[in-house]
Amino acid sequence: MKVVILAGGRGSRLSEETTVRPKPLVEIGDKPILWHIMSIYAHYGFADFIVCAGYKSYQIKEYFANLVLHHSDITVDLGKNTIQYHHSTRPDWKVTVVDTGLDTMTGGRLKRIRPFLTEGEPFLMTYGDGVADVDVAAEVAFHRAHGRKATMCAIAPPGRFGTVELEGEKVAAFVEKPTANRQRINGGFFVLETSVLDLVDGDRTHFEGWPLERLVAEGELAAFRHDGFWQPMDTLRERDHLEELWRTGRAPWKLWA
């Protein structure tokens, strides 16, 4: 199954980083968040990727074109015009990067990459700015079992602010990131049949709008519940939070060895 990653937005809420590079290339540790997302899927054996690029798409193309360079030590023989790679840790991935337009909406980006999909075969889809410890293999099995056109990972988002638990006038405990009220939201990490793309009119279609609403109305959108870790990277604060988790060895989304 192919994995489609939406990576074309401007990332304006993270402008401290995205003025110079596209949001999916903003680094957690010393790797772009896009690499982290792809590593989650590759852990479950899904390593054929289609990246829907847009804003500064050439940087995403250059990153993958030079991935071996990024993940290796090198010896450059200028006289012979050769490069020798050492200690290469390149992943065994196939990556197709498609420029889906600067102002194309999410549904339009999916429509544009349809020629790269296999008709009649489901594909995986997510956003290029969030990580989770989702069991992707279990979600795919769930999708195949229920027989609907689409499966969405439904998550209970963490609370924005920490809370305190009280016992009378005494503080009993601090809760750093409480889950608000168990109401669930779209956490990305979809499994979709190619027929879902028939619901997209064109570049101006938001996938999260009419297409998903139509699937709900037809009873064709199933919810795969995920109660584990999930974190988008929309702001500098969230980027710093992910960076701290990675730096201290507490990154829940690091499922690979």
Automatic annotation (TrEMBL):
Its EC number is 2.7.7.33. InterPro entries: G1P_cyt_trans, G1P_cyt_trans-like, NTP_transferase_dom, Nucleotide-diphossugar_trans. GO terms for molecular function: glucose-1-phosphate cytidylyltransferase activity. PANTHER family: GLUCOSE-1-PHOSPHATE CYTIDYLYLTRANSFERASE, GLUCOSE-1-PHOSPHATE CYTIDYLYLTRANSFERASE-RELATED. The keyword Nucleotidyltransferase applies. This is Glucose-1-phosphate cytidylyltransferase. Residues 2-222 form the Nucleotidyl transferase domain. Keywords: Nucleotidyltransferase, Transferase. It holds the Pfam family NTP_transferase. The gene is rfbF.
